[in-house]
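User: tokens in, sequence out, please.
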């Protein structure tokens, strides 16, 4: 469903007390850069080591992102370590083991987060991601799963909601300002609309999409839904305090921003006054946003073709790479 999946009870096999953690597990992994064909589904992958500041999560659901594809294609090889790599940033699951320095989480906690180790303090991208039966994650990157969301819904959120919130924050967005969201039906754009309106108190939210997704934009809170197949947003007489470009950037976005405004770019080069924004994983921001999720003011948007089962991750990536997804592409359930 576009508004998220029905709430699912946690299966009995996902109860923390029922786990007998294996030394080997199933995971998706690639050993060389390339297209979807380099992904391998393996059943004898070693369980990740749990460091003192980490917890071991039994992964129940995961989501995939364009950054997974770019990393697999070698576009980040100058800053990321080389394969072998288990992909996946977004996770929802159950804590089954805690490191000696972990203070706020315990076995049995249901959590979600962007597990990528990169932060404002550390630059150590993980080799072992979320597309596995178990994964090890720093406590500071996680938050308790919102009580009203199932694991698939929760796993759809971390990268996209952090990108939405941190991008707006970096642009100096605040109550009473206006924003234009380019790519409003995508994983990030659908949350920028909601975060701008519900969290920051935007005076006006405009967003672009194709014809068939205009009603979704309105349901998410867009005051103006623009059909990019019929209208050029830069020709609008109204200009915006912030333009949030959630698609491939170009010079058009800067034509829609007010003088003194900002253009947030999350992929590719930025044309001034645009700036390239890089998301940082932060469990504290997820905790801050949890009340908006639990109240229903901000909702996850999952692509209706999903969720994809764990053994169809390659198909999920093929679909994501068509650039036609609505909201997030989710993998659920991960094998118990």
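Assistant: Sequence out:
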């Amino acid at each position: 469903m576009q508004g998220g999946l029905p709430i699912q009870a946690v299966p009995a096999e996902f109860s923390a007390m029922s786990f007998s953690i294996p030394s080997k597990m199933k995971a998706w992994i690639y050993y060389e850069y390339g297209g979807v064909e380099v992904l391998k589904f393996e059943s004898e992958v070693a369980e990740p080591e749990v460091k003192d500041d980490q917890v071991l999560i039994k992964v129940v659901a995961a989501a995939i992102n364009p950054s997974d594809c770019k990393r697999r294609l070698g576009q980040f090889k100058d800053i990321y370590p080389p394969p072998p790599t288990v992909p996946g940033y977004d996770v929802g699951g159950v804590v089954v083991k805690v490191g000696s320095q972990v203070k706020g989480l315990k076995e049995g906690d249901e959590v979600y987060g962007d597990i990528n180790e990169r932060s404002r303090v550390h630059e150590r991208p993980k080799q072992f991601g979320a597309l596995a039966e178990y994964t090890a994650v720093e406590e500071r990157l996680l938050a308790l799963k919102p009580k009203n969301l199932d694991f698939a819904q929760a796993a759809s959120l971390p990268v996209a909601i952090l990108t939405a919130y941190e991008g707006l924050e970096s642009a100096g967005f605040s109550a009473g300002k206006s924003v234009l969201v380019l790519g409003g039906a995508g994983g990030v754009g659908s949350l920028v609309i909601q975060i701008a309106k519900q969290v920051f108190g935007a005076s006006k939210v405009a967003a672009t999409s194709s014809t068939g997704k205009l009603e979704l934009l309105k349901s998410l809170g867009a005051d103006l839904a623009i059909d990019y197949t019929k209208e050029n947003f830069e020709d609008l007489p109204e200009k915006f305090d912030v333009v949030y470009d959630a698609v491939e950037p170009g010079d058009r976005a800067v034509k829609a921003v007010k003088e003194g405004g900002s253009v947030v770019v999350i992929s590719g080069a930025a044309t001034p006054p645009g700036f390239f924004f890089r998301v940082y994983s932060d469990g504290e921001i997820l905790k801050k946003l949890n009340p908006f999720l639990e109240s229903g003011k901000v909702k996850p948007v999952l692509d209706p073709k999903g969720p994809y089962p764990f053994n169809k991750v390659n198909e999920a990536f093929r679909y994501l790479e068509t650039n036609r997804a609505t909201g997030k592409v989710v993998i659920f359930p991960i094998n118990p």
